[in-house]
């Protein structure tokens, strides 16, 4: 079996992901593929001790903390099993795109298998592949780039293979694949330039002694690291002679690790599993012995310095099978004499060997004159190359890791530099100055104390600086005038004129516009920050003429009514805070086009509207406004603010007001947004222009139609259909929607990250969509949907006959509230709602029938309120793990349970049972 070759010299995978898996299986899970291909192939690979990734559900639902992308990046091989149904799986196609990316970037080796399908059908996308892609293009018409990437990955893969594989040939194919993979995965010896050959010959003499006995071999290091070279080279040479290979590095650096955690580390290499928990040292010793006493193993423990900890991992010879070898490197000769049979002393490498080793690992990358950074890089490089028990990473891997580490050093240096600058800056803040962490980061970036290429990097550096500051309590520092930097000041009357010209950050308390400090302020030509406090109502018209370098102006809490005409000269201004002022006009805003942050919280004049010229601030990134819910419209041209990152509310205007299409190019929006007054949207075309599906950084979306209702419900249905958000959405709320049907996209499994859905006041809806298909949904609240009379099997799955999956796999909390016409809830299959913990049903006055709750074994809390005709059978059908059961204003249940409840009807853990707020005693 032939594999792909990378197109160019690969770089290394990200160093933060260790290679837990060596082979990634890419396949569509159906019975034929599982039974005839996946099972025999995986069994054979596991017999060779080759780690494979096969659990698709966990990878795509992220149960184990890693996404499929990270697992693919950490793998060395990818086996792609093409079958007739392969292209119908979005998981498979997404994985294939990532596989091709890793092939090009990291040299991931790809092995294709064609099961019951012609290779030409795959590569040319014909027959079943053609049908599948047609369906994808119809459903993903708004995300067609994704389909294009899938097609491109298949074409790219086809160009790599000129040989006709001729399909699946059963056992012979398995043997060929396993043989090829095992050859590639066998460790290779370090290059001879490292200079371990002579030492290796001497150590192997000890290994050859008594080949059927268990032997403990010690390597005494004289310089603290040369023994690691010998041990790792030995491991490469002898790897195929043992059933199990175990390595524990940097033993002396694991002082903080418990013995139990070290035992878990050892067992994870034996059992090929990360899910191992040892609660007791003796228990761990027993498990290690049971696992290894019949197996031929080689164990290497580097830099051992504690006999007791070593004994808990490799106690005695009878822990291991015949022929096993336990190799220990240490700088403690006495320790080795206590635990090993033979000891070999590794002298210092010769000068030529040292230079050869150094040139192999420490290539000349670039010139760096900073000695401190060189030392840190050398130490990090040392850990990477020497202390890795497999013999050290490849040169390419070291290159990539060192690049990352250099980047981290640069960030650390910036954090230190900026933290010192911010520390000085904090001294100018008034003692009563209240500021949040987010606000401080924005202020510091506006002033230029923090700089970064992207918003994400700026936030990362900014919050790191604040973390540093919090350790020193910056509230104390800003109140300590003794350490005030000469570039910072809180007053001007005690500063000479020459010092004024060097001043950069200033806070002043002004008595009025004639305050003497204002005259001296004209000399502060380098001023970047100006914070003004006081009861003044006006400022001199020429006040800012000499302050052309000003970047941040804060007049929060003053009585300022107008900004002076000279304000328009502040062309470099990035940050403006006029919060809690009676300011009447901001007409001069249009001149400060570099403004990035504008704070208007508590401005009475702008309580119901934003400044008309706001649309001219094309660099605005942060707009803080306290009364978003009172806005009836936004300024014309608001969509010009394409760099805006946060927008709490977007009210759709009437007639000539702000249209929904203004959102079209505002693709930098992130976090949460509430789109209000959707009853004002005139047509579906306006909703389509909003292009919500392109805004991948919006995580929480609220769609609100308000209280008014239009007669034509079809318009609302078309509008909502075009308001599909990006598939990265995490929370969705729909309020006041007047359509009869929910949108087709709401139940799409493509929304793999959505965790919360709230449906409220959607009174015209007669049916609930198949929300059970959402893979990550945890919270579902359905409130006042009066048009729903029955909840049936379609709530769980699109087709009642499709039982291939458990509905609502992650749902933990379900609330049905004020469903005035709901009469029955049915259609729940065995295994549905496997994670449900809490069920609340309230004010459903016609509800009679519930599904079989005993089938929902995870359910722990049930609360029923004002459901007067609910069936009495409920009390005989409670889940086995129920802990809390509350019934209020449900007379049919009250008659049955008010006085006493028999043990036979109750789960064993139900100790909180309340009927009309009275606790019920259990017989």
Structure description:
Pfam families: LRR_R13L1-DRL21, NB-ARC, TIR. This is Antimicrobial response protein. InterPro entries: Disease_R_plants (IPR044974), LRR_dom_sf (IPR032675), LRR_R13L1-DRL21 (IPR056789), NB-ARC (IPR002182), P-loop_NTPase (IPR027417), TIR_dom (IPR000157), Toll_tir_struct_dom_sf (IPR035897). Residues 19-185 form the TIR domain. Helix 4 (90-106) links the parallel strand 3 and strand 4. A 12-stranded mixed β-sheet has the order 17-18-19-20-21-22-24-26-27-28-30-31. Strands 10-11-12-13-14-15-16 form a 7-stranded parallel β-sheet, covered by helices on one side. The longest helix is centred in the middle third of the chain and has 31 residues, at 395-425. Among the domains are: 23-185, Rossmann fold, CATH 3.40.50; 199-361, P-loop containing nucleotide triphosphate hydrolases (Rossmann fold, 3-Layer(aba) Sandwich). The chain is α/β, with parallel strands linked by helices. Residues 1-19, 61-66, 162-166, 187-195, 349-371, 373-398, 473-482 and 899-904 have low confidence and may be disordered. It is built from 25 helices and 32 strands.
Please write out the topology:
Blueprint: E1 23-27, H1 31-47, E2 52-53, H2 56-61, H3 68-74, E3 77-82, H4 90-106, E4 109-114, H5 119-123, H6 128-139, H7 144-160, H8 171-185, H9 197-207, E5 215-221, H10 226-238, E6 244-248, H11 259-271, H12 281-292, E7 297-301, H13 307-311, E8 325-330, H14 333-339, E9 342-346, H15 351-361, H16 371-385, H17 395-425, H18 437-447, H19 455-471, H20 474-478, E10 488-489, H21 497-500, E11 505-510, H22 516-521, E12 529-534, E13 552-554, E14 575-577, E15 597-599, E16 622-624, E17 649-651, E18 671-676, H23 684-690, E19 698-704, H24 713-722, E20 731-735, E21 756-760, E22 779-783, E23 790-791, E24 813-817, E25 824-825, E26 838-842, E27 861-865, E28 884-888, H25 891-897, E29 900-901, E30 912-915, E31 918-919, E32 921-922
Parallel strand pairs: 1-2, 1-3, 3-4, 5-8, 5-9, 6-7, 7-8, 10-11, 11-12, 12-13, 13-14, 14-15, 15-16, 17-18, 18-19, 19-20, 20-21, 21-22, 22-24, 23-25, 24-26, 26-27, 27-28, 28-30, 29-32
Antiparallel strand pairs: 30-31
Helix pairs in contact: 1-8, 3-4, 4-7, 9-10, 11-12, 16-17, 17-19, 18-19, 23-24
Protein name: Antimicrobial response protein
GO biological process, one term: defense response
Organism: Lithospermum erythrorhizon
